[in-house]
Design a protein that fits this description.
- The structure is a single chain.
- The chain is elongated.
- With 79 residues, the chain is mainly beta.
- The strands form 2 sheets. It has a 4-stranded antiparallel beta sheet with strand order 1-8-6-3, with no helix packed on it. A 4-stranded antiparallel beta sheet has the order 5-4-2-7, with no helix packed on it.
- The chain contains no helices and 8 strands.
- The chain has one domain: OB fold (Dihydrolipoamide Acetyltransferase, E2P) (Beta Barrel), CATH 2.40.50.100.
Length: 79
C-alpha cells in the first residue's frame, strides 16, 4: 500500500483545501495522473498519482483542510 501525502508547499504555507477528487475509491489510476486538486490562498494545484494501482482509501472530503504531510489517500499497488 502506498500513502499519498500532501507535499511541502510554499514557505509559510502549512495546509491546503481539498477542492476536487479526480478518482473514486476502487478506481484504477496510472502514475502521473492527477489524483486530487488542492487550493491555498495563492494557488490551485494537483497532486499526482505516484505509482499505478487502485485508489484503496480516501481520507479527506472535498472542502476539508489538509496539513502538509497528511495522508490524502492510499493506493493499492499493482503486482
Amino acid at each position: 500500500m502506498l500513502e499519498v501525502k500532501l507535499p511541502e508547499l510554499a514557505e509559510g504555507v502549512n495546509s491546503a483545501t481539498l477542492t476536487f477528487w479526480h478518482f473514486e475509491e476502487g478506481d484504477h489510476v496510472e502514475e502521473g495522473e492527477d489524483l486530487v486538486e488542492m487550493a491555498t490562498d495563492k494557488a490551485t494545484f494537483n497532486v499526482p498519482v505516484p505509482s499505478a494501482g487502485v485508489v484503496n482509501k480516501k481520507f479527506f472530503h472535498e472542502g476539508d483542510t489538509v496539513n502538509v504531510g497528511d495522508v490524502i489517500a492510499n493506493i493499492k499497488l499493482e503486482s
